[in-house]
Specification:
The chain has a 5-stranded mixed sheet with strand order 1-2-5-3-4. The chain has 2 domains: about 40 residues; about 160 residues, 60s Ribosomal Protein L30, Chain: A (2-Layer Sandwich), CATH 3.30.1330.60. Helix 8 links the parallel strand 3 and strand 4. It is elongated. The chain has 9 helices and 5 strands; from the N terminus they run H-H-H-H-H-E-E-H-H-E-H-E-H-E. The chain starts with 15 loop residues before the first helix and ends with a strand. It has about 240 residues and is α+β, with helices and mostly antiparallel strands.
């Protein structure tokens, strides 16, 4: 009976060949990595590193970052993030002239907004304290605004505002809310009767003390909260 010959596991080739192949493969990978790293943009790599460090809150030695609490902004403040110079560049010259005219008047401010021009008049110009009857002295100011409305504005919204001092209770004005509404309505009526503006272009609203510009903690702040705001929505 013939005996079978034993075969070695490595009979396919010399045993050192596997080790040599592994070494060549590792060398190839090593040189490929070296070539790849040599072609990396160092500036971009540093920018990525700095962004990652700042995002994780990791800073180099000798550097520090200031930490503070930021008050939440109202929607109107958030909306006007652009600088005044950038806003002025987009404002037509005729609107800038209007703003300068009204802004030069005492106790009157005019600002450009996304919807148009907002003219704010102190209540002392238009009304006596606790009254909704328009002062005759303010007719000239309302006439100027009416002329602008006829020429440029498409829609106008008149808003009345008061401070938090309660009015003397009466049938006519039970609260500041009724007083603010009546004042806005009287301004709208003046624009219709004297300014010859179509009622379809006008609207009135009263907010009482619900939308103050300043806290009602001083006499000056309360005086600034008593106001009438006229929003001129431009045709363009």
């Amino acid at each position: 009976m013939k005996k079978k010959k034993k075969t070695n596991a490595g009979s396919g080739g010399p045993g050192w060949l596997c080790t040599f192949n592994d070494l060549v493969t590792l060398l190839m990978v090593f040189f490929v990595l070296i070539f790849t790293m040599s072609s990396v943009d160092i500036k971009k790599l540093k920018d990525v590193q700095q962004s990652l460090q700042s995002g994780l809150g990791v800073l180099k030695e000798g550097q520090k970052v200031s930490v503070g609490v930021i008050d939440p902004q109202s929607p109107s403040e958030v909306k006007s993030v652009t600088t005044q110079e950038e806003i002025v560049e987009d404002v037509p010259d005729n609107i800038l002239d209007i703003i300068k005219v009204f802004d030069s008047e005492p106790e009157i401010t005019a600002i450009y907004m996304e919807k148009g021009v907002l003219i704010t008049l102190s209540s002392t110009i238009l009304f006596q304290f606790g009254s909704a009857d328009i002062n005759p002295e303010s007719f000239s100011v309302l006439d100027k605004i009416a002329a602008v409305i006829r020429k440029m504005s498409e829609f106008v919204r008149v808003e009345g505002h008061t401070d938090n001092v309660p009015v003397v209770h009466s049938r006519r004005f039970p609260s500041n809310w009724e007083l603010s509404i009546k004042r806005a309505v009287n301004v709208v009526k003046y624009f219709v009767k004297v300014g010859k503006i179509s009622p379809q272009r006008l609207s009135a609203a009263g907010y009482g003390e619900s939308k103050p510009l300043f806290p009602n903690d001083t006499q000056e702040h309360r005086a600034q909260n008593r106001r009438v705001e006229i929003l001129l929505e431009m045709e363009d």
